[in-house]
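Forum > Structural Biology > Help requests

Title: Can anyone predict the 3D structure of Enoyl-CoA hydratase-related protein?

Hi all, first post here. I have the sequence for Enoyl-CoA hydratase-related protein but no way to get a structure on my laptop. I'd be grateful if someone could post the structure tokens.
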Amino acid sequence: MDATLLHTVADGVATVVISHPAKRNAMTASMWRALPELLTGLAGDPAVRVLVLTGAGPTFCAGADISSLTGGEDPRALAVTAEEALAAFPKPTLAAIRGFCVGGGSQLAAAGDLRFAEEGASFGVTPAKLGIVYPASSTRRLASLVGPAWAKYLLFSAELIGADHALRAGFLNELLPAGQLDKRVAEFARILASRSRLTQVAAKEFADGRTDRDGYWEDQAAGSDDTAEGVAAFLERRAPHFTWTP
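Reply #1:
Sure, ran it for you. Structure tokens for Enoyl-CoA hydratase-related protein below:
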């Protein structure tokens, strides 16, 4: 099967699948280049409320397919561009992980908002095996996610850690028994899609450290009907119908 990025949109959830089974879903240069454009299109689609990133078959992503990099391309630059596009996606993002999540795979997973994994998954950040300086932005994002001590552990050693360790380190939000990942991800994605987009988008900016739009979000909240709708739905014991859009 060719190396490609697949995607579907259903019930408010966009699912992007990293598909390169011959090499454990390693990202080729063309896949790295394609991801930002794909994300831009999904970000602008009003039918998309949540993004799920996963891998085809039993592996999430084993990193970069170095053999696909030709013409002097810098694999770090390609990976960082894709990582930043995922981090900037304006709607909730969730990485659904099974099997290997290594190198560029861990980089992409860390750029998402949430990470759910299946028992047996393995995680690693491996530039120390190759004498590569891990990108500054990626290092800071990893340290922000798991703390400096765990970031140093992963970067200094380049060792793989199991899903239990990744959960304790704070890399994972949830760890699921074998066979239950897809069901839980679908369930949680539906929950996210039902919640207030106003709350989610503002919270994402605040949590990611943006500080220049506090006033903007105060104005958006004041001009939105989401709060009144949420309170009314709670009192009437019904599902809310939130209407705010960016």
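Residues 117 and 175 are 5 Å apart (CA to CA). The two ends are 38 Å apart (CA to CA).
Shout if anything looks off.
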